[in-house]
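Quick look at the format.
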Amino acid sequence: MPVKGRSKVTVLICAIIIVYVLTLGIPVTSPTSSNEGFKRTVSILVPAVSQTKEGFKGVISNVTVTIVKPGTGKVFVSASPLTEIDMQASARTAAIIASTILGENPLTMDFYVSVESPSIIIGGPSAGAALTAAMVSAISGFEINRSVMITGMINPDGTIGPVGGVKEKLEAAAGIGIKLFLVPIGQSIVQENVVKYKKVGPFIVRTVKPVQINLIGYGKELGVKVLEVSNIIDVVKYMLNIKLAEKPIEHIELKLSTEAKNLFREQISEFKETYLNIRNMLGEAKGTVRDIVKEAENRYNEALKLSNEGYLYSAASMLFQAVYLIDFARNLQKYYNEGEKLIQELFDEVNSTINRVSSKVYSVKPLKLSDIDILIASRYRIYLAKKLLEQAAETYSKGNYEDTIFGLVYAKWRAKTAELWINALGLGVKEAPPEEIVQHLSTLFIYEANSIIAYASSLLKDLGVYSDEFLDKAVQDLDEAEEMSSMGDYYGSLGLSLSAIAEATVSIHKYFTVDAEKQLGAVKDIAEKSLKYALSLGAEPLLALGYYEFAHQQQEIFDKIYFFELSSLHAKVLTITDVIRSPGNITIKTVTPTIPKTPGKTPTPAPSEEYGLKDFLIRVAPILASFVGGILVGYSLKRRTAV
């Protein structure tokens, strides 16, 4: 063969090899980023806990997820046998999160979930993270790594929530050869109660001693690597060996716009003026009134300090407290001087204020994406004002006049803050989504709150805990969310359901997350990312930023975790609604598995999937390139031999 001919073949072979290598590294876009229809089924093994005569035992359930596009957003769940806590809510949340992190509209697909377990399992929400991973697999077409398993809830902001029975689930995972076991952040150390019996004279004394177990070390003994994960992006990295390309947000500062700052400064100025005017009207205060005035002054001074430090949201909130306390002192003093006549006048004033503000609050419509948060804040406040007015009427009928006055004053100022929030409408540049999306999310998150509260109640009951401040507040907020939803107020119900989810989640953290500091750091990071992403959309997440600021003011660690979680949830809702309205392509890169794809023992069910043309080309292109390259190499060698 002539040298020139051999050179051409050699160049061609090199070019094909280069194309082949480059093909392996090309980022792959989600196959469903277009309007193509598909139907895919994915099976995943999920650890669970079952109650036995000997106590709790880890078991393995098989979850099968089928996703069909086109669809209408329906989520169907069947379980055999039934789970103690319904998985429907977790499946709905998983569908929302899996879709939106891939840039997909969940309302254009239908989701079918089937759960098979060897026995009745406890805690449907604890499979939420695994469900989400399976749905990401079904939507994107990337396969599950069968040697990786996860336990954890999926929260509406994409964080992995705490669960119970982690040790038992790890043991079950090890029993089928799992190599990597993912757990929620802060739960690689668990606490177990060790019961011992000791004979003391004629008596047998039973003692219970809490013992901490390091699951990372315990996992090594079982041949399993235990790893903490905080969010669904990390989960799919390990379970699907993919990395979702996130929007660059590092450069975004967590701060209010100039317009938003001016609104808060105006509010602070108005509150200060109101406080000073009422204080001057009071004159000399005595007895109970003097004590109330002193507390009002303390909060007023604290508000001034917060304002000077730049904490505008916290300063406005503290001034609100100072104002209603000083107004309570004034009205209480008038009651002592004028008698019951003052209460009748106050009822008329408060009722008139609530009716006027309510009419204003419910007449406005959202124009910007940020207005979702504004309407959540304003409508809940007017709802609360109405409830306070009803409660004041009840306390009045019982002859408790001082409490009646306090309730009326608080109701009046709560209504006025609803009006102040309306002034913040129209911030940001991103347009508001259709209100039907807000209604859908409100209904979804009420289901989710119900599920997490039931799960938290079950876990705490097993520990002998029947009352917890966070869980009790979650139950109250859920009741109010359902009431507002029945009234057709989906903004208020959405906000209350998010509060209930955060509160119930924190109640689980209190008793099942040993390393609370690590959890605090993780939820703070997630809140910052959620806020920055919302800001990057051109939104002004005032309420979410306010909760983030509040978190820094708290003294107790679980209060900090609660407000960071609440901040993240509110910011994430803005992102979710925007993706549902305007789906977009998400770039997906494959990553090298850190864990072998085949488990050490029992094989797991292989996924049954139907791929479209794009899926087929993505997978066969490297193979074809290799095949053609091999033929040409062989041809070249043959020609050389002939020469």
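Next, a different chain entirely:
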Amino acid sequence: MYDYLIRNGVPKESLAVYNIATPARYVAGGGGYLTSANDELITRVRELAAATGAKEPLPSNILITEREKKDKEYYGHSLSEVYLAGASGRIVSDINSALTNLKDGKGSVVVEGGCFNAPSETLSYNTKKGFFNVVDPLAHRAYSSAGKTATAVATAIQYTVKGVGSVAQNGFSYVTDFLSSKTTYASDQSHTNIVSQNQGGAAVLAVVNDTPSGNVIITEPTEQVAVETQQLAPVSAPETPVSPQPIQEQAPAPEPAPTTPTEVAPTPSSGGGASPTQESNDLTPGFGGGGGGGASVVEGDTFAPEKPTITTPEDLAAVLDSTDVTIGGEAEAEAAIEFRHGSGGSTTTIDTSANSSGKWSLSVTLTEGANGIEVVAIDGSGNRSNATRTALEVRLAPDAPAVTTPANASTFATSTITFGGTGTGTISTDFSSTTSSTDVDGNWQMSLSEFSEGTTTLSFYNTDDEGRTSEATTLSVYVDTTAPAVTLTVLECLNSLSTDFCLAGDTTLNLAWNSSGSTYSVIKDGVVVENLSGSATTLLVTDEASTTIAVVAYDGAGNAATSTEQEVYVYQKPVAISEVAWMGTEASAEDEWMEVYNRTPLTIDLSSLSIVSADGDVEFALSGTLGGGEYQLIERDDDTAVSSQPAGTIASFSLDDSGEELRLVHGLGTATTTLDQTPEVATCSGWCAGLLSEMRSMERADFDADGSLESSWWSNDGYDYAYYNRDASSNVIYGTPRTPNNRNWPGYGYFCEPYADPYEENGYYDTNSGRCYYLYRDLDKPLQTMLFHGTVGSSTRVTGDSVSKGIKRFKTNNAVSGLVNGDDLFVLLFSTETSGIDEINTFETYFETGSSTLPHDNYKVIQWKYGTAP
């Protein structure tokens, strides 16, 4: 019909064709069309065309959601129930766009009785009509079921091949040509009025079918008719034919020369549609679906260029997986190209141009979903081609899944690891065939097993419901199921003070271990007391007690191994410096000696002990072992300084008479622990005890006290306790080598066994027998001693004796008869200045009766009471 009208004088710019639900392979005049993807009739035609090798109908360019019962014959093909009900807005928009582009033509019109004559029913026309009757049974109600349709189609093909000869070679092109002669085919009625509307003096054939008379009715454009873009209600076929509108009278036009109608096959248009989508009814947002606009008129060249083609992408119906797209095609050489694309009501225009070969290309960023495309070629005279329209569907792959656990490069001590994160759809991995589906909140989790030792790199993918797979999220994990080895060393045990077990001399222990672990826990008596990453530490333990120690090593994967437990017995300061004869002996000042004491009940191995001075002038190692409670004598250079005692260690050293700070240290390999020491030189401006003038040694006053304190030392008290200790010249040694230190007795005093120290003034002492001792170091002349029962001036002498300087030992009892608890007793010590008997009698009389006068005051009195204090 389009060709007929054009050949009979209707200008092209005054006509536009818009097809709905068409099985045609093109739209006459390059017009628009609308075909739903779920139109079963069009799908059946498409299948038949493919089977016969004929050209297929235009691709569907919309998906209209379900509007009718699915069991209805040729579901999806109803104009009123499907197209008008589901896409009226699109139809109105497309027609409105076509109206806008029409121009007022001045062509001649052949009219008979006010109407165009219908085209003659030639063989070609009838053949096309026969195909149409077969493929669209809804239009003519020839068949009512798919089975009948299949039979009719097969019969029609056989008939056509036999009856029309070479014409049948075009197959379904006849169907499409036939339908292209109608501007719109209404699928649910056999006849529809031709609607004529004006827009700028132009007419649009909106709906076309045969009238009862077989003629096409066109009203003369007389006024402007606005086309409203609105939702159309479903329409149905009128029960009676509509009478044709009369044509207004006008001056008769010259009769044109007779022409013979010629069958002209329309040139196929490239106005194909895009693949259907359920997200939108309109795959060309921003554009109508109708024919293109006319060319601009420029004096000298009024011919519009051919519509440009789109050759890239090659398959316009294919769904794209990227928004960055290169689009290209062909147009008139060196024509300007006006390219528009739009989505969601937003339109972007890009200008480019074709090269001398007519090739054009550009890069564009589309949006996800349906993107309308329109391309217009503009020649050098400004003439615009009809628009080439299509739609491109972009469906991006989903985002790569997020793996929130574990962290990348995590280490595990197990070959089974649980992974989790967020995503959409189905999560898969290249490690195994295991998959996981995301929950309603987008979370996923999967457990993977059989990881090998070492590092494994694996990727995770997100696949959506349409099978699109994301880029990979890659991470690595490290599996280590081998526990680290660990060997614990307690330095004090390597250098134990005992040969039988680990004996340490200080409550601070030095621990070290060898291990491939990364973190460690120190365990004391079964309890973790420290966590650290280093391989050494110190540990505080209890004095005079055993402590069990172990170290647990952890590697980066969490594997753990525990060292062998070690039991350490600690005795704080087990060996102490007990005496220093820094002044030498009466025989020689170089016969210096010193002594150490074992404070414990244990046998001590002295081989790891040394004595050093703070200034480094003295340094030597001890040797041998030392039993519990025993003393070891250390002599300088040889074993002659103390002739009466054997030396345990002989060493080369020299002590400064002005003072030394000596230290007893426990060697621990590269470290040492100081067990004991003498005071710093500055503490006492020299040695803190000992007398050079009297050759009295410096002795330890308290082994439990800190040896660095002045109060921990005193000088030998000058009493010859061990009267057998002699120097190299057999002189008395005022010291206590290898024997208990002196008791620091006073210059005078008295006591009897079992007491070991002098009586205190007026103290109670329950003794009246045994050996008794007189002390009189401070009295430097021959002495007399007397024991009295009573008080001074009222007493009775019990016994008396003369003694020499030093200490007096009575080997007989000083028994006093008749004593009762609380009786007073006292001892008199006095020098005999004249050594005469009168002097002795005078002292005795005075202390018994108090009647005489003492000859001098060089005497001492010690008073006490017998028995026990009340």
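The CA atoms of residues 228 and 469 lie 45 Å apart.

See the schema section for token definitions.
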